[in-house]
Amino acid sequence: MPKPNKSALQDLSVRLGHDFSDPALLTLALTHASARAGLKPDEDNERLEFLGDRVLGLAVAELLADRFPKAREGELARWFNHLVRAETCAEIAQEWNLGDFILMSGGEAGSGGRRKKTILANTCEAVLGAVFADGGYEAAKALVWRFWEPQLGVLELAAPDAKSLLQ
Question: What pTM was computed for the model?
Fold first, then answer.
């Protein structure tokens, strides 16, 4: 399975606004589990996805607390859920054109894997994990704030969650 060329990865790094000191982390973040054949179990993006999910949550919580200092907890929770959901992460991944870079099996690619929202969202989180692992929390936070802050304009339109509807 071919890896993205160095120039393509550099273009992605520029799009992300992070110059990787360890470019192998970005390649790992782009390696879907379907590419695991012939790889060691830890040579896909699942661990970075786990890490990136937590980084995203913290950075989005901080963004909301900063931008909406008078908002109540219920509003913040609803907005938080909207910003960290898979659909939002997939939209950000599409903005980054991540589908073009994901390393996956031929079967997964042939079944439209590069456009699947779940794969895009998971890869987005893995990229955040890679940025965190490479540059620390401030680098990851800067990335989240730059790409998730524009989503704040649609927060009022975000439907309340089921718990809020019941209350």
Answer: 0.88
